């Protein structure tokens, strides 16, 4: 096996995340691991940076495709085209196919790597190379055997993350265009947000890399991209505050990286030392999972935080000259139209720098998906719409098109209006102002591209109302 091609499709269409699209680290990590363990150096294609080289794919001994739920349609289109080129083995991985392996196999994939895929992928390559590894012994994979689909037992999660090589971003075609460099220092999350699939893949046990290993990687990345911002890809960078402080102290001592951003929870603001270290190590943005300003919704999401916690966290983080990106999830069974208005009003009043008002998404593998599926409330199975910008389920306390128009779309349009952009300019908040200008334009483009979708939701609503009236008349 000489030539391996790994592909990370990017979601089609317009969305507000396009400006800061980052490669996920799974494929660069698998590439580094394949080179270390087997002497195979894959080429990685990430659609945002470089078009697929179909001639190289035609010559490949193996093609790997990674996908999350909203990129699944694009991933399956790539899969179909690869299969038209010849008898090229295709392995798929990522969160979406982890929970729906039979869907991927039914689309033509030869193998599916489920969950944490490092061991499974390397063992699968050994099997395909003829190194004496029986297919049935490869944990964590699904595959077709004749007409039957087989699912081997799950692979054990990797406890020592420092035993893994650093993801090799230079394997990505067009990596020179990277401006924000992703780094992951941990896996797992001790919290239980019902709409999140992270713990289904990585578990509740919080595992983290050795501080020295992280610092060595940061120094290496600084040599390659000396002026770039680092984004810590951890689902919760501060889940273990003492460990985070240890990492930050070492970052401060070495003066690395030049600046950084990370995902966190509101608890971060309760620790004065942690906030001070963040400021001293040049943290410029924190992405907070705020989710809602409705106390009942926060409880139903299992967020373990209050509206007062949210407001105080934004205030404290701003006090340390760090910007806040607030992530809200609209449409729980506790939300109504008033909640949508209150959420937008809260974000503006709190002067959150940037936000995303996303509709609740029933992602496969989550408690939310299981509940809504069992209740028959999922209205669309077009995975490309599972991006938070489209409402794909029937809310409990409002019409589907109302959540779409006033929440997922209307809330973003209001927050990123030109008036709000102008106010940032008057306060000299240039970084957030630039992001909001991009978002304003992206939202307008989204509205244009999704006009038919918005009309369809309204027609559905009218059809349901007519049916209910007929039932009332005949009752």
Structure, described:
By secondary structure, the protein is of the alpha/beta class. It has 2 domains: 4-151, 3-Layer(aba) Sandwich (Rossmann fold), CATH 3.40.50; 179-459, tm_1862 like domain (pyruvate-formate lyase- activating enzyme, Alpha-Beta Horseshoe). It contains 18 helices and 15 strands. The strands form 3 sheets. Strands 2-1-3-4-5-6-7 form a 7-stranded mixed beta sheet, sandwiched between helices. Helix 9 links the parallel strand 11 (229-232) and strand 12. It is globular and about 65 Å long. It starts with a strand and ends with a helix. The mean pLDDT is 92.
List strands and helices in order, with pairings.
Blueprint: E1 4-8, H1 26-38, E2 43-46, H2 54-59, E3 62-66, H3 72-85, E4 90-93, H4 95-99, H5 101-106, E5 111-113, H6 118-129, E6 141-145, E7 148-151, E8 180-183, E9 186-187, H7 198-202, E10 207-208, H8 211-224, E11 229-232, H9 241-254, E12 260-264, H10 272-280, E13 283-291, H11 295-300, H12 307-319, E14 323-330, H13 337-349, E15 354-359, H14 367-374, H15 400-415, H16 418-426, H17 430-449, H18 451-474
Parallel strand pairs: 1-2, 1-3, 3-4, 4-5, 8-11, 11-12, 12-13, 13-14, 14-15
Antiparallel strand pairs: 5-6, 6-7, 9-10
Helix pairs in contact: 1-6, 9-10, 13-15, 15-18, 16-17
């Amino acid at each position: 096996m000489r030539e391996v091609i790994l592909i990370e499709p990017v979601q089609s269409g317009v969305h507000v995340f396009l400006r800061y699209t980052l490669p996920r680290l799974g494929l660069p990590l698998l590439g580094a691991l394949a080179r270390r363990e087997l002497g195979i150096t894959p080429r990685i294609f990430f659609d945002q940076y470089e078009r697929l080289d179909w001639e190289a794919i035609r010559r490949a001994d193996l093609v790997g495709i990674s996908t999350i739920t909203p990129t699944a349609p694009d991933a399956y289109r790539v899969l179909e085209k690869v299969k038209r080129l010849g008898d090229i083995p295709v392995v798929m991985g990522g969160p979406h196919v982890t929970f729906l392996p039979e869907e991927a196999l039914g689309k033509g994939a030869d193998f599916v790597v489920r969950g944490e895929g490092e061991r499974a992928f390397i063992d699968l390559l050994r099997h395909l190379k003829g190194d004496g590894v029986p297919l049935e012994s490869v944990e964590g994979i699904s595959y077709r055997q004749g007409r039957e689909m087989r699912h081997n037992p799950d692979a054990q999660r990797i406890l020592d993350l420092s035993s893994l090589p650093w993801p090799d971003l230079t394997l990505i075609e067009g990596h020179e265009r990277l401006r924000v460099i992703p780094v992951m220092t941990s896996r797992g999350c001790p919290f239980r947000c019902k709409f999140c699939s992270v713990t289904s893949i990585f578990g509740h046990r919080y595992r983290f890399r050795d501080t020295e290993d992280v610092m060595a990687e940061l120094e290496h990345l600084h040599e390659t991209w000396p002026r770039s911002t680092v984004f810590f890809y951890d689902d919760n960078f501060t889940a273990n505050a003492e460990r985070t402080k240890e990492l930050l102290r070492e970052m401060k001592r070495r003066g690395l990286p030049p600046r950084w951003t990370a995902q966190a929870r509101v608890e971060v603001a309760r620790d004065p030392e942690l906030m001070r270290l963040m400021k001293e190590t040049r943290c410029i943005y924190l992405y907070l999972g705020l989710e809602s300003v409705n106390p009942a919704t926060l409880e139903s999401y299992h967020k373990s935080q209050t509206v007062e916690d949210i407001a105080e966290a934004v205030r404290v983080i701003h006090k340390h000259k760090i910007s806040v990106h607030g992530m809200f999830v609209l449409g729980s069974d506790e939300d109504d139209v008033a909640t949508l208005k209150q959420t937008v009003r809260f974000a503006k009043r709190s002067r959150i720098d940037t936000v995303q008002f996303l509709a609740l998404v029933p992602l496969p593998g989550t408690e939310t998906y299981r509940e809504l599926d069992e209740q028959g409330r999922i209205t669309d199975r077009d995975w490309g719409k599972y991006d938070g910008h489209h409402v794909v389920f029937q809310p409990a306390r409002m019409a589907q098109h109302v959540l779409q128009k006033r929440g997922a779309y209307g809330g973003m349009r209001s927050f990123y209006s030109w008036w709000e952009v102008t106010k940032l300019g008057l306060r000299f908040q240039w970084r957030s102002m630039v992001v909001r200008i991009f978002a304003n334009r992206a939202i307008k483009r989204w509205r244009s591209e999704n006009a038919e979708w918005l009309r369809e939701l309204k027609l559905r609503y009218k059809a349901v109302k007519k049916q209910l009236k007929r039932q009332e008349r005949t009752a």
